[in-house]
Amino acid sequence: MDRLVDLAKVLRSKNSGPFEITLDVLFDDEATYRRVKDRHVITEQSICKAYKLKREDIECIVFFDMALGVKITFDRKISSGTCFDRDVYGAQQHAPLMELLVP
Amino acid sequence: MKRSFRILSPCGILGYGFPNASFQHGLEMKPDAIVVDAGSTDAGPHKLGAGVAIVSKLACKKDLRRLIVGGAKLGIPVVIGSAGGSGGRVHVLWTLSLIDEIVSEEHLERLKEVIVWGDIPKDAIKKAMQRGDVQPLGRNVPPLTEQMVDETTAVVAQMGIEPIVKALQSGADIVVCGRAYDPAPFAAVGVEHGFDLALSYHMGKVLECGALCCNPGTTKDCMMGELFEDCFEVYPTDPNRICTPLSVAAHTFYEKEHPYLLRGPGVVQDLSACSFESVGKNRVRVTGSSIRPSDGYWIKMEGARLKAYRTFVIAGVRDPILISKIEEVEQAVKGSVCRQYCEIDPSLYRIAFYNYGKNGVMGDLEPLGDTPHELGVLFEVVAKSQDLASAICASVRSTFMHYGYEGRKATAGNLAFPFAPSDVEFGKVFEFSVYHLMKVSDPCEFFPMEVR
Q1: Which residues of A53-71 are buried (b: 16+ CB within 10 A; e: fewer)?
Q2: Tens-digit pLDDT profile for residues B73-101
Q3: What is the model's pTM?
C-alpha cells in the first residue's frame, strides 16, 4: 500500500467558483495513474469518508486519461470569503486526500 | 490570413508582476498582440462588493506601463480583461486613471483607447428573472430574489468574445474590458484575425494564467501562445522554464469544476479529444480542441452584498490544561458574553472561534484530532454594525482572558496577545449574492463599447 500523496505529482485544492471546492490529483506516469484509477481508490465513498461529506455534496469525480489526472468537485458549506469561511481560495483543503491508501 | 498569430501573456493577473528580461524576450519574438487577464473572484466577494482592486496601484501601474510602452513600440494592441480585478465600473475607472497617467508620462496620447463595459443594470436582471431567464450557477447557490438584487452593490457579468472582437475591429490600440470570461480576451484576438474559435479559446484558457502551465509554474512570468490553422503552440519566454505535454494538459484542470468540459459565454469547450505533444525544447503543440454553441447564450453574473461588520482578535494559548478543553472554554465564554448583553437581540451578532493548530483550516471537515502543545486562537464577532461588533468582541476578549475554567492553575490570564491593542476592526464583510446565469438574445447587449 502506498499513500496517494507519495504517488501523485500534483495534489491540490482550489475554488472552482465561490461555491465549490475542487481537488486535483495528477500523475506523471501512466502506470501509476492506471493503478489508482483501476483499483477504485478515489470513489464517492472514499471521498465522503475522508472529508466527512454526504454523497449529495459531491458534484463530480472525473478521470481524465489525457492529462493522467482525476478531479473531485464538492459543494462548499459556506461560500468563499463571507462570514465563517475558513479558506477563501480553498487552497488548503487537500490534506485528507493525501492519506488515501492505494493497493 | 496570417499563417500564425502570436499572443504574449505577461502574467496571470495584471499587477502580479513579471521579469523584465522575459517580457523583453517576448517582445523580441514579435508578438501580434499583448493580452492580460486582470480578474479573479478567488479573493472572495469583498473586492467586488467594496469596489476595490485586487492589486495595489503601484503594482498595477508598473505592469501596465511596460505593456502599453511595449505594445506601442511594436504597434500591436494591448487587451486587458476584467480590469481592476472585478471588472465593475469603478474597477474599470481605476484602471483608466492609471492608463491616463502612463499615457501622459510616456507621451502616448496618439493611442486609441476603447472600453468595453461589463456592468449589468438591476432592472434588466429583474426583467430577466420574470421571464425565467435567470438561474443559479451551481446546486448550492440560492435562487435569486429581487431583494437580493437590490441589496447587491453592483452586478457585473462575464463577457464573451463578441464585444471584444467589435472593440478590436474599431482599430483600438488599448482595449480595457470590464468583467470578461478569463480566456475571452485572448480568444477574441485570435478570432478577430480569422483563427479557429475552439483553438483560440483553448489557447486563451492556457495563457490567462501566465506561466502557470510551465515547469516550474508561476503566475508571475510571461507566456507566448501561437495560433496556427489546425493547432496552437504555447511556450515560456523565460529560458528557465519549459512546457511539457503533461504540464499543459494538467493546466486544463485548474480552477474548473470539470477537467475537460468548460462552459463559457455561449459556448462549451470540449477538450477530451485533445493531444499535447512536445515541440523543440520548451514548446507544446495542442490539437483536437473542440467547441460547440451552448443551448442558448447565457452570461455569468457576479455580485456581492454587505453581510456584516467584523472585529477580530488573534491570540496564542500555551497552557496544556486550557488546550485540552479549548472548545468547552470557548463555548462557556460565548455563553457568558451573551448573558452579559442580554438586552441585545442575539440575532444581531455572532461570535466564532478558530483554533489554529487543531482544526483552524478545515473546521468540521478536519479528520485528525491530535492535541497540539500550542494553539493560535482567532476569534471574531460579526454584527449588524461596526460598533456592536467591536463592543461584543472586546467583551469576548476580556471574558476569555480571565475565564476561570474548571482545573485552571494559571489564574493570571488565558491568552498571549501578540499585539497591543489586541482588537482589530476589520470593517465590512461581503458575500456573493449574485452568482447566476442570465440568458441574453445578443452577446453584446450588456457590453457596450466606448471610444475614448
Answers
A1: beeebbbebbebebbbbbb
A2: 999 999 999 999 999 999 999 999 999 99
A3: 0.94
Chain A interface includes B374 (CB < 8 A): no
Chain B interface disruption, residue of A46, A65, A79, most B CBs within 10 A? A79
| Cβ contacts of A22 on chain B, cutoff 8 Å | 255-257
Mean pLDDT (chain B, rounded): 96
Q: Nearest to residue B414, comparing CAs of B379, B448, B362, B383? A: B379
3-state secondary structure B136-167: ECCCCCCCCCHHHHHHEEEEEECECCHHHHHH
Unique residue bearing C-alpha cell 471588472: B87
The CB-side HSE value for A35 (13 A sphere, CA atoms) comes to 16
Interchain proximity A83–B431, CB inside 8 Å = yes
Residues 6+ apart with CB under 8 A from A6: none
Chain A residues with CB under 8 Å of B277 CB are: none
Residue B356 pLDDT class (50, 70, 90 cuts): very high
* Phi, psi angle pair for A87, to nearest 5°: -150, 90
